[in-house]
Amino acid sequence: MTTKHERASALLAVSTVIFALRKDDETGGEPQVWLPLVRRIREPFQGRWALPGGPLRVGEDLAYAAGRTLNETTGLAPSYLEQLYAFGDASRSSGAERVVSIVYWALVRGEEAERAVVGENVAWFPADHLPELAFDHNLIVEYALWRLRTKMEYSRIAHAFLGERFTLAQLREVHEAVLGRALDPANFRRTIEASGAVVATDEYLTGTPHRPPRLYRYDDAVDLADAGPLPLQQHFFKGES
Amino acid sequence: MTTKHERASALLAVSTVIFALRKDDETGGEPQVWLPLVRRIREPFQGRWALPGGPLRVGEDLAYAAGRTLNETTGLAPSYLEQLYAFGDASRSSGAERVVSIVYWALVRGEEAERAVVGENVAWFPADHLPELAFDHNLIVEYALWRLRTKMEYSRIAHAFLGERFTLAQLREVHEAVLGRALDPANFRRTIEASGAVVATDEYLTGTPHRPPRLYRYDDAVDLADAGPLPLQQHFFKGES
């Protein structure tokens, strides 16, 4: 601790990975994970697609900037916005100055995604089939997908895609869309019921011709916020109760 | 997007929350979550306790800096080191320049914690009974505890505290220490077995006088890294396979 080291500083940027479950407009089929990208209109990487985002503004808070980029790109307000990771290694910046990108991810419900405005130079892509993106954004999307798929197993991420009440078939469809593979309905039901994460309600799905399926909800009692409310949580789970 | 906004820059700092399960040297009793803190020897907050860490050095990578502060404070190499959160809102810095702190958290096994060197101006504190710390470090520890307790329910965090093989009683003790409350042994066994997260091995704990308890391990087949290995994961789970 006697050596004098020069202190690192950086330019700050915020990027947002916005995941929605969508069906392919042309081929139809099962829903998949899609995300909107923005075409860069200046160097570096002019013409390449990139995550929504950009420089943080002086005085601007991180989560606010993430919500702003989400809104500017899609016209949506996020129901689930969470900090994903800070990318800031010295080697990732090509310029003279280090750039630290704080990456947020947002999950958008199907009916919200349909309302999304697609502006100029914005397009939606299936997350598993992306072109070569600007900067290290392919790596960031890969990591976000890995977190989504890992977290799906144990958390209420499906809730962000589904709403308050859902059938087990709807929940399974979300899991299938995120994991990218079919799941056995009986096994899925057993696993979900054993986990205790969801509870049956007294309500049934309406508008179905035959025997209407039962609606479930996440068990709030298992919500593990035992540590009590933290001011910070509001940043992570905006719109979640 | 026609307005010109001034771009934010920041000084970079890294802090590390180092959690270990320890018994109180004086009172004994059940193990609890402890963490080492460093007494500040200069302003601001001179004399207050703070998380290990400090300015990031020019050219230094984030995870490397976190491992360095862990090593400088405890003499330990981390078995579990993961980025927790980037704190960088404009309001958190008292000086003229914004400071972005990238916070890592490390979990240290019991036998490692016992080997930890306690240097000058370093002391261990029970995480639930901290004095008023420097900066916003109380808030950071609270958030880290919340993440630990939430994540414990669904993940292999216990593994970082336990090693490869463990009895269900040892696993329950880790959960009890982290959650800060006693758990019913029969309920705990049922929940863990239903989760499918751990599998019984053919081995038994040796050195016990009566019927030796069976050893369990985490089920690698349930390791959810289906998305394939990402270069980034090595940063998060250093030392984990």
Features:
241 residues, Nucleoside Triphosphate Pyrophosphohydrolase, Arc Repressor Mutant, subunit A, 2 domains, seven-stranded mixed β-sheet, 7 helices, 9 strands, disordered C terminus
Largest sheet of chain A: 7 strands, mixed
Number of domains of chain A: 2
**Count of helical stretches of chain A:** 7
CATH class of the largest domain in chain A: Alpha Beta
- How much is the radius of gyration of chain A in Å? 20 Å
Q: What does the average pLDDT of chain A come to?
A: 80
Overview of the molecule:
Chain A has about 240 residues and is an alpha+beta fold. Helices cover about 30% and strands about 30% of the residues of chain A. Chain A contains seven helices and nine strands, in the order ββββαββαβααααββα. In chain A, β1 and β2 form a beta hairpin. The longest helix of chain A has 16 residues, at about 135-150. Chain A is elongated. Mean pLDDT of chain A is about 80; it is low at about 220-240. The interface between A and B is large, with 51 and 51 residues. Chains A, B: Pfam families: NUDIX, WHD_NrtR. Chains A, B: It comes from Leifsonia williamsii. Chains A, B: This is NUDIX domain-containing protein.
